[in-house]
Amino acid sequence: MLQELLTAVAAVGSAGVLYVVSAARVVKQYERGVVFRLGRLAGDVRSPGFTMVVPFVDRLHKVNLQIVTLPVPAQEGITRDNVTVRVDAVVYFKVVDAASALVKVEDYRFAVSQMAQTSLRSIIGKSELDDLLSDREKLNQGLELMIDSPAVGWGVQIDRVEIKDVSLPDTMKRSMARQAEADRERRARIINADAELQASKKLAEAAEQMSEQPSALQLRLLQTVVAVAAEKNSTLVLPFPVELLRFLERAAQDRPVERPVERPVERPVER
User: Fold this and answer.
1) pLDDT tens digit string along 58-68?
2) What is the signed CA dihedral for 104, 108, 113, 116, rounded to 10 degrees?
3) Which residues contact 207 (CB under 8 A, 6 or more apart)?
4) What is the pTM of this model?
5) Burial of 51 by CB count in 10 Å (0-12 exposed, 13-18 middle, 19+ buried)?
6) CB neighbours of 123 closer than 8 A, spacing ≥ 6?
């Protein structure tokens, strides 16, 4: 009798251990557990840690709540200003409602991917080429809003959307390069002209100042000689001051002009 009792206890214990082993589940910190009992959603979402389910009746599905990095394949489209481009992007999203992500959509990853591709094509058609190249932050926000609107009903939250690269045809690249080169040349000419204007104004002021003080011109001449001599050249070019030429010219004008003395012409005497 005792042996039969021990056998029954052992059998019950073995069945209990087997039940616990088959019913025990562990949900990780970054996961949430969704239980389906006979095909229907049962109870609340299971929190991280140890949990129990009914063997052969309940099905526990674990949903990852980490942020997913989803690359969007390059999409080719025509911009609003009729330029053919290829644009690829990346979408960062996460699941915020594990039950909705399993019940309301078949595959939320595939659904987000398709929605991102469709929205990216729509953004390309509504934007101009300059916006795609320079104003990406605004386009990223618009793209994020377009993807996030239907994703909210799937229990998915779009964290961030970024346009990675914009590929242009070779002919368009050459045209843009020529345009950029012409614009840089135009700005260089404007800068040079502005520099010449400022230099001429400064030179005019310097000339006016030197005209009031003639000795300043001599000092400037000596500074020029010193600067040239510092180069240690074998040939020294010494500029001749213009004021000295003017002084000599005035001196020549003030000198009295000597008229030649007329001598009488001797005529031969006829005999």
Assistant:
1) 888 899 999 99
2) 50
3) none
4) 0.63
5) middle
6) 87, 139, 142, 143, 146
Residue range 73-92, pLDDT digits in tens: 988 888 888 888 899 999 99
Closest alpha carbon to 180 in 127, 125, 134, 128: 134
pLDDT tens column, 157-173: 999 999 888 888 888 88
DSSP state of 125: H
> Token pair for residue 59?
């099905």
Helices (runs of H) and strands (runs of E) counted in the chain: 8, 8
CA–CA dist 210, 260 (Å, integer): 43
Rg over alpha carbons for the chain, rounded to the nearest Å, is 47
CA distance 90 to 136: 13
Distances in Å between the alpha carbon of 207 and those of 106, 202, 210, 222, 266? 86, 9, 5, 16, 61
Length, in residues, of the chain: 271
End-to-end CA separation in angstroms for the chain:
202
Say how far apart CA 138 and CA 132 lie, in whole Å.
9
DSSP string, 193-209: HHHHHHHHHHHHHHHHH
Residue/partner pairs of 230-234 with CB below 8 Å, 24 or more apart: none
Q: Give yes or no for a contact between 89 and 161, defined as CB atoms under 8 angstroms apart.
A: yes
User: What are phi and psi for residue 93, nearest 5 degrees?
Assistant: -145, 165
Which residue has tokens 């910190």?
29
Q: Is there a contact between 31 and 65 (Cβ–Cβ < 8 Å)?
A: yes
